[in-house]
């Protein structure tokens, strides 16, 4: 094979765990003329997106579409499901589980932190070590700062065996559409997601899923992020405040293509991630996560190599990658194929890894 | 001129006061591949949008870009500028000034409502009738539910003559880019806007403008809408949470074209609105507002004609219009050319009005 590269002739590749390469149906939806959000056409598209998301979260409750980031959905869930003073257990083992703790703190909750090494997953025995009672458990399904995937189903079971009245709220931001997920079926009460992750749309929408039980337990707070205001109107395709309706249309358009093939899509994401990890192993790279999330790979940097060097090596080949956050800053690099991509894209990135990580 | 219309051969026209017809530069920006928000390219585009918005608001302070609607920006300003228990004066004369009152109420402020007839504007003598002291005044520049434009400069002066320590916070959601506006120059401390109005982008971004004085008075609250978190990072082109970066790019792209011709653009919006009001007068329609905002026309329905009939008459010609809100529901209809349009579009709509409002 010819090995001389033609300088600069690479197409851009976004290999970050959100935002991600856009689904073509999302781009098409965004190219349409502006819809008015209080029109029949908009209500129809809103309900398509909402119903599709409810199918994806596997809930008989409701998914509320919030104009904001995934963090807005997390903030809204904490504020509207727990009154100030409520006592919640928050395992902290990465940047996003840390975010749950900070949100709960700001909302005036009593936060019991369960500190774990970053990269590890939460196990039922960790939960059992925490001194109750608790009104809730805040979990991160895919902790994309470390690449770890928690078994939220088993954790919810363990928690509810001790605190059957408690609510289990899950950050599914990088797991939905990428990994299996079930809301009520797994004993979860509420979950958050965002538009720029597994659903391959631009950032700007947060999805807040509420099980029927969570809806019963609502303790609405705030104005813009008040979930009671949204619940009142969203089942008719309306929203309390002007929604990012173009992104809602993008969500609906991608769902129409993605939902009928969701199991195959999830299998693909798993396979792509395995290819990247296998390539890393071949290159002698050490993976960070104890249990691997298909949303992102996370490797320790090779001995004596800085993140700037790795980033530059990928950038020279057209690719945007991402480094570590918090305590992993400068110690790891991450790659994701959560965006629009197929198996051959994984092979392309594997090839790029072999080139980019050869620093001799 | 041939008067037989060919049925169904109308192009869609969005004549609502937000969302509006998109600027072609916005559509182009949205068609681009996904940017990662933590990249140099994204930081550059973010700073272009931020700096451009600061020029539009005419502030030496900062404009913060929030992923959310204009209501998110209003909520953020109230929560971050006033501590619970602060006493604010809120003139209420339409749906959006009513929203200020509700937001302030939810945020735990002591709200003194100044009730005026809908359609009227606030005058300095109204403010003087209110029993102080006040920590703030919440004003609506263009009250688009009635089509009225307040002279916020004079009102700020009158308020500050009595309460020099107070903060004047303005809803500029349908006035920025449509009508003259100055933040510090007019004695205002903070203002809110949204992406789907005068700037002709899709909905999904709220802009919160803070004067240097407002920045000094910040009393940060909340998590997602905490303005201190945003202030800390936005001057470097970052944002606390994943921003709707595609909409930020659309904002920057439109600003690049709009800012150098802003006075001419504002003059055009004024002229378009005058054409629509003149046509209404010719048709015997009674305008609602005491002082007319260029953002939207608002007419009482002709005697014996329902809003559904008017809406249908415009819809049959391809146009989406909007009715009344709150106490004006079923009593008025509204038309706006705030979106991408020129003088000839105003003549086109005038022609459509003459046809659509002939119910004989």
TrEMBL record, chains A, B:
Tell me which residues bind substrate.
334
User: Is Ribosomal protein found in the keyword set?
Assistant: no
Please give the biological process terms from Gene Ontology that the record holds. glycine biosynthetic process, by transamination of glyoxylate
- Ranges for domain Aminotransferase class V come to 32-325
UniProt modified residues of type N6-(pyridoxal phosphate)lysine: 197
- Which cofactors, by name? pyridoxal 5'-phosphate
Q: Which UniProt keywords apply?
A: Aminotransferase, Pyridoxal phosphate, Transferase
Q: Which PROSITE patterns match?
A: AA_TRANSFER_CLASS_5 (PS00595)
Q: Name one Pfam family in it.
A: Aminotran_5
Q: Name one GO molecular function term.
A: L-serine-pyruvate transaminase activity
Instruction: Please name the InterPro entries in this protein's record.
Output: Aminotrans_V_dom, Aminotrans_V_PyrdxlP_BS, PyrdxlP-dep_Trfase, PyrdxlP-dep_Trfase_major, PyrdxlP-dep_Trfase_small, SP_NH2Trfase/AEP_transaminase
Annotated family: Belongs to the class-V pyridoxal-phosphate-dependent aminotransferase family.
Its protein name is Aminotransferase class V
* Species assigned in the record: Meiothermus ruber (strain ATCC 35948 / DSM 1279 / VKM B-1258 / 21)
From the broadest rank down, the organism's phylogenetic lineage runs:
Bacteria, Thermotogati, Deinococcota, Deinococci, Thermales
């Amino acid at each position: 094979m010819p090995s001389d590269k033609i300088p600069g002739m690479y197409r851009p590749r976004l290999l970050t765990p959100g935002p991600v390469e856009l689904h073509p149906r999302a781009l098409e939806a965004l190219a349409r003329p502006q819809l008015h959000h209080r029109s029949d056409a908009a209500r129809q598209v809103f309900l398509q997106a909402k119903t599709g998301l409810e199918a994806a979260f596997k809930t008989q409750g409701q998914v509320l579409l919030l104009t904001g980031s995934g963090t807005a959905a997390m903030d809204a869930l904490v504020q509207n499901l727990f009154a100030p003073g409520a006592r919640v257990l928050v395992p902290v083992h990465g940047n996003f589980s840390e975010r749950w703790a900070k949100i709960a703190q700001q909302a005036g909750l009593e936060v019991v932190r369960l500190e774990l090494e970053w990269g590890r997953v939460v196990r039922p025995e960790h939960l059992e070590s925490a001194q109750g009672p608790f009104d809730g458990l805040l979990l991160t399904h895919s902790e994309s700062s470390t690449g770890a995937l928690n078994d939220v189903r088993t954790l919810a079971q363990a928690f509810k065996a001790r605190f059957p009245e408690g609510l289990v709220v899950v950050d599914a931001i990088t797991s939905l559409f990428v990994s299996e997920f079930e809301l009520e079926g797994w004993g979860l009460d509420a979950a958050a997601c965002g538009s720029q992750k597994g659903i391959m749309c631009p950032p700007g929408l947060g999805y807040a899923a509420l099980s029927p039980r969570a809806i019963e337990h609502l303790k609405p707070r705030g104005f813009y992020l008040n979930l009671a205001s949204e619940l009142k109107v969203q089942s008719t395709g309306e929203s309390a405040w002007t929604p990012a309706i173009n992104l809602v249309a993008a969500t609906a358009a991608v769902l129409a293509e993605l939902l009928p093939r969701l199991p195959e899509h999830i299998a693909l994401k798993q396979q792509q991630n395995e290819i990247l990890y296998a390539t890393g192993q071949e290159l002698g790279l050490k993976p960070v996560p104890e249990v691997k999330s298909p949303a992102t790979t996370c490797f320790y940097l090779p001995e004596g190599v800085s993140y700037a060097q790795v980033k530059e090596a990928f950038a020279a080949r057209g690719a945007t990658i991402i480094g570590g956050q918090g305590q992993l800053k400068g110690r790891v690099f991450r790659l994701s194929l959560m965006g629009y991509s197929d198996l051959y894209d994984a092979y392309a990135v594997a090839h790029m890894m072999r080139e980019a990580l050869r620093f001799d």
